[in-house]
Amino acid sequence: MSFSPKLSFSVFLLFHLCIVMKATTPPSSKWLEPYRVTITNQDVPVVLLRCDDLDASLLKPGNSTSWKFRKNFWDSNKYGCRFYWVDDNFVLQKQAEFTVFDDEVANKLCGTDGYNMNRCYWYITRDGFYYSKNDGSDWNLLHGWNNIG
Ligand SMILES: *[C@@H]1O[C@H](CO)[C@@H](O)[C@H](O)[C@H]1NC(C)=O
């Protein structure tokens, strides 16, 4: 079998296509829905907050914490948070734990816009945890606090 320039060119092309494809394929997340979750403490003296793999936060009244991410390909992003209501003497008063973001929360509450930031707002109050999509007009009390012990 003689060496075929045609075959050789095809191999050359294929080889380069692979490199180009590999080099130009953007991270898949670029195509997936962007989200920002914001959690604000309204009137609890001190809230200690820990959401899965994020750093813990200490929120005084008026303080917020916020993070953004894109949905992954499997829609499996999930942030479960633990909240601790602490008084001014750092004595634990109440606690709560719920999922602030997952696919169900996204579909029911935050939205599923593929191009613009989907925003989810949680407000922490002494009554419990309010959710709003618009940060102001449509608060709904969705979770309560649990007493300690
Ligand atoms: C948190 O709130 C306190 C008052 O409640 C304020 O003094 C402080 O600057 C706030 N911190 C941040 C990071 O906003």
UniProtKB/TrEMBL annotation:
Q: Where in the cell is it found?
A: Secreted
Pfam families in UniProt? Self-incomp_S1
Q: Name one GO cellular component term.
A: extracellular region
> One biological process GO term for this chain?
rejection of self pollen
Q: Where is the signal peptide?
A: 1-23
Q: Which UniProt keywords apply?
A: Secreted, Self-incompatibility, Signal
Q: PANTHER family per the record?
A: PTHR31232, S-PROTEIN HOMOLOG (PTHR31232:SF149)
Indicate the family of this protein.
Answer: Belongs to the plant self-incompatibility (S1) protein family.
Q: From the Swiss-Prot or TrEMBL record, give the protein name.
A: S-protein homolog
